[in-house]
Design a protein that fits this description.
Elements lengths: L11 E5 L6 E6 L3 H20 L1 H18 L1 H12 L3 H5 L1 H19 L15 E9 L2 E5 L7 H13 L2 E5 L6 H12 L6 E3 L4 H8 L4 E5 L2 H14 L3 E4 L4 E5 L5 H13 L9 E7 H16 L20 H16 L3 E4 L13 E4 L6 H4 L6 E7 L2 H8 L4 E2 L1 E5 L3 H8 L6 E4 L16 E2 L2 E2 L7 H4 L2 E9 L15 H15 L7 H5 L4
Parallel strand pairs: 4-5, 4-7, 5-6, 7-8, 9-10, 9-15, 10-13, 12-13, 15-16
Antiparallel strand pairs: 1-2, 3-19, 8-18, 11-12, 14-17
Helix pairs in contact: 1-8, 2-5, 2-6, 5-6, 10-11
The structure holds nicotinamide-adenine-dinucleotide (NAD).
């Protein structure tokens, strides 16, 4: 980042490709004043956006869906440029974003339809009850760097469909994709309710200080600070934080397949996914075969700086700092007795770190307790499923988990014993691409969830309750003034008849204490 003495307008952030250090862009470091001014503008535009109605907003989301399709290749180039990831890993982001925008455009209408509940008591029959869903005016979305295009899309589409205006503050490490999204929104001529402001933690903090709802994805440390700031302002928030996802391999499993799945779950995006497999517990009878298979498969992976060739499986890490965290965790484990079976060090080029398998590890080591967010797979032998569950639950995190078994019912039973927000049986990441299910973490992995049917869009709304009289209106309601013993008795007796049980319903019995 280059800092000059002149004011905020001159402050810029340099974006480099971590695979080779090449400069790929520069973005402004926006000030708190600029954030406040943008939020004011968004607030003014939002009313019109809400007034368009769900169908009107869905039309714009569909046009944006087309824009994403038309610009897929260029966006994927940009994802690679600012992250150093492989083409194979980068390719999936735009199609997943398209799938998501379609999901909200298609379902928002039914998810946001007014509800007309029946009164909870016959006494309420005189009113028609309506519950509506009205958006928070400005939703602030703060994102990390691991999926630079998808992370903003994960939350922006639902908030826009709900009728909110959206301000995104992308990671300072990978701000270019989010900027492109905002340009695309303007290019299709959509109402100006989707903006992106770039900058670091201070810019993010200014967003938290001004918006009406904060959707944060990032580290648990930052999430905690945001929760405190939102608490001070009494505004709602939703936090998608770090994880330490366990994989449990049962003895009845197809070992080769489980190893391939865990390899993908642990090493996709160089392990820089919140729901990466970060620790593996294997039942003793298949431990040796599993380790052997995994090590052979990891050793065969190709690592390097890719372009559009699909020539490599594993790319660079997004930052040197993240690479150094992995280096530190490996050193800590080895110092405490762990063995490296393959990989184990930075390659020396760019920010690449070799995909690594560790054994002889235990929960005294950082690689088993702290989030790695890197290409590291530590494996522990367990006596049986009870030990696996105990160790899997021995974490401050509770994002997701995987279970690998030939017995799907057993897998599902085991899932219900895990203290995590999602469990995938015989696959990794499956919950992330099934929008009908919520994606959210337990414990230190977050508060709230994204998507998951109606709840995923209603979270961006305030519920409003409306009561409307049915039938003729009395000149005065029974409890309006002036006070009257007779009217009070009628109302309270009626309530007792409805709400008390058995003989207690009888007005005379109660009044004379004859029960
Ligand atoms: P981070 O917490 O350092 O930063 C995330 C974002 O918060 C960045 O945009 C940053 O500029 C901003 N920020 C920093 N300080 C802030 C403050 N005080 N107020 C407001 N904003 C602030 O996280 P990171 O290193 O960018 O991302 C990696 C983390 O993200 C990992 O822990 C990973 O598990 C997590 N993550 C979680 C999910 C999920 O869905 N649960 C998905 C992806 C990543």
């Amino acid at each position: 980042m280059s800092d000059t003495a002149t004011p905020d307008l001159e402050r810029t952030i340099e974006v480099r490709n971590p695979a080779d250090g090449r400069l790929v862009g520069k973005v402004p470091e926006e000030s708190a004043a600029s954030v406040a001014a943008t939020v004011r503008e968004l607030r003014l535009q939002q009313a019109e956006w809400e007034a368009l109605g769900v169908a009107g907003r869905a039309k714009w989301l569909r046009r944006f869906q087309d824009w994403l399709v038309d610009h897929s290749a260029r966006l994927t180039d940009l994802i690679q440029a600012e992250t150093g990831k492989t083409r194979f890993d980068a390719e999936i982001e735009v199609p997943a974003a398209i799938d998501l925008v379609k999901y909200w455009a298609r379902n928002a209408q039914s998810f946001l339809a007014d509800e007309r509940p029946a009164p909870h008591s016959p006494i309420g029959l005189g009113k028609r009850l309506v519950q509506t869903f009205r958006p928070y005016p400005v939703v602030g979305i703060i994102t990390p760097w691991n999926l630079p295009l998808l992370n903003p899309c994960f939350d922006a589409f639902a908030a826009l469909a709900a009728g909110a205006a959206v301000l995104i503050k992308p990671s300072e490490v990978t701000p270019l994709c989010a900027q492109e999204l905002a340009k695309g929104w303007a290019e299709i001529g959509a109402p100006p309710v989707f903006r992106v402001l770039t900058g670091g933690g201070d810019t993010g903090s200014a967003v938290v200080d001004t918006v009406d709802f904060v959707q944060f994805t990032g580290s648990t440390r930052t999430g905690r600070a945001i929760a405190v700031a939102c608490g001070q302002r009494l505004i709602p928030y939703s936090l998608e934080l770090g994880g330490k996802d366990p994989a449990i391999v049962l003895a009845d499993v197809d070992v080769e397949r489980a190893a391939a799945g865990i390899l993908y779950g642990g090493l996709f995006n160089s392990g820089q996914v919140c729901i990466s497999v970060e620790r593996v517990y294997v039942e003793a009878p298949v431990y040796d075969r599993f380790v052997q298979s995994l090590v052979a498969q990891v050793a065969a992976l190709r690592q390097g700086a890719d372009d559009r060739r699909f020539a490599f499986d594993i790319g660079a890490m997004a930052t040197a700092a993240q690479r150094d965290i992995v280096t530190g965790q490996v050193a800590d484990a080895v110092a405490k007795g762990a063995r490296i079976l393959t990989g184990g060090k930075a390659t020396g080029a760019g920010t690449f770190f070799e995909p690594t398998v560790l054994v002889d590890v235990d929960h005294s080591m950082l690689c088993l307790t702290e989030e790695t967010f890197g290409p590291l797979i530590p494996i522990i032998r367990v006596a049986g499923e009870d030990e696996a569950v105990r160790l899997a639950n021995d974490s401050v995190y509770g994002l997701s988990a995987t279970v690998w078994t030939a017995d799907r019912r057993r897998g599902e039973r085991l899932a219900r014993r895990l203290e995590v927000g999602a469990v995938n049986i015989n696959d990794a990441f499956a919950n992330l691409v099934n929008f009908a299910l919520p994606m959210g973490g337990w414990k230190d992995s977050g508060i709230g969830a994204r998507w998951g049917g109606a709840a995923g869009i209603r979270k961006y709304c305030r519920t409003q309750a409306i009561t409307v009289p049915r039938g003729p209106e009395l000149p005065r309601e029974p409890l309006w003034y002036p006070a009257s013993r007779w009217r009070s008795r009628v109302v309270t007796t009626l309530m007792r008849v409805v709400d008390a049980r058995g003989r207690r319903k009888l007005p005379f019995a109660v009044r004379r204490n004859q029960l």
